[in-house]
């Protein structure tokens, strides 16, 4: 297994990068010959096998040409530049991938925090409700005029003074329901309020005819 540098690249990849950079800046011009594998191995203080892998990368990209008995020749500065650009693009992609990974980790942390805070809020609401006003539940019957209508349409709060704090629909609980939530037959509506407000809310939800406002 090839040794890897702290930056994450294998040693032969670092050497390929260094050679390509020297060619791109004109230090090693096209057509020139560079040191053989053994000499390069001494220069970079690695094994000849590591040099062979580095040269193979640049040979495959059209930057170098390795000819048996003739050594290693520089083929193209343009291809060296193209190779370096591909490495920069790959590094940018890896950075973006790491950034996305970090963002997802932060989102999971935020999701956990939101869930914990919501549970705390529900507990506090329940505590306040039990301490000041009574809680009551009513199951919406199929014959109820409220079945199929939203909380906003039946105007539960404005007509009765009671406040809906939860709606249970097919075992799914909706806390602090909005005015756009639709009540269906079998739903359980939980509301709080004074005794008279709860009585009016119970009557509103159990009525079979639409409520008629006074005045």
**In which order are the strands of the major sheet placed?**
4-7-5-6
Give the full name of the CATH homologous superfamily of one domain.
Answer: Winged helix-like DNA-binding domain superfamily/Winged helix DNA-binding domain
Shape: rod-shaped
Number of helices: 7
Q: Helical percent range?
A: 40-55%
Instruction: Please trace the helix and strand order, writing H or E for each element.
Output: HEHHEEHEHHEEEH
CATH class of one domain: Mainly Alpha
What is the CATH topology classification name of one domain? Answer: Arc Repressor Mutant, subunit A
Largest sheet: 4 strands, antiparallel
Quickly give the CATH architecture of one domain: Orthogonal Bundle
Number of strands: 7
Structural class by sheet pairing and helices: alpha+beta
Distance between the termini: 88 Å
- Rg is 37 Å
Task: Report what the structure shows.
By secondary structure, the chain is α+β, with helices and mostly antiparallel strands. Among the domains are: 11-86, Winged helix-like DNA-binding domain superfamily/Winged helix DNA-binding domain (Arc Repressor Mutant, subunit A, Orthogonal Bundle); 133-206, Alpha-Beta Plaits, CATH 3.30.70. 52% of the residues lie in helices and 15% in strands. The protein has a four-stranded antiparallel beta sheet with strand order 4-7-5-6, sandwiched between helices. The chain has a three-stranded antiparallel beta sheet with strand order 1-3-2. Strand 2 (64-67) and strand 3 (71-74) form a beta hairpin. The longest helix has 56 residues, at 77-132.
């Amino acid at each position: 297994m090839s040794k890897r540098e702290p930056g994450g690249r294998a040693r032969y990849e670092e050497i390929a990068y260094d050679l390509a950079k020297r060619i791109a800046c004109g230090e090693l011009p096209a057509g020139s010959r560079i040191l053989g594998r053994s000499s390069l191995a001494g220069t970079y203080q690695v094994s000849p096998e590591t040099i062979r892998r580095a040269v193979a990368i640049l040979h495959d990209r059209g930057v170098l040409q390795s000819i048996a008995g003739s050594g290693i020749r520089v083929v193209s500065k343009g291809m060296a530049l193209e190779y370096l650009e591909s490495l920069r693009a790959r590094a940018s992609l890896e950075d973006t991938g790491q950034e996305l990974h970090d963002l997802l980790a932060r989102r999971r942390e935020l999701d956990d925090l939101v869930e914990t805070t919501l549970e705390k809020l529900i507990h506090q609401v329940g505590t306040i409700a039990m301490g000041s006003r009574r809680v009551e539940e009513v199951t919406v019957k199929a014959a109820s005029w409220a079945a199929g209508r939203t909380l906003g349409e039946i105007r539960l709060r404005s007509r009765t003074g009671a406040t809906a704090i939860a709606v249970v629909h097919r075992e799914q609980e909706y806390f602090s329901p909005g005015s756009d939530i639709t009540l269906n037959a079998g739903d359980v509506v939980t509301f709080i309020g004074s005794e008279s407000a709860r009585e009016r809310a119970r009557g509103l939800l159990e009525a079979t005819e639409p409520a008629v406002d006074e005045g």
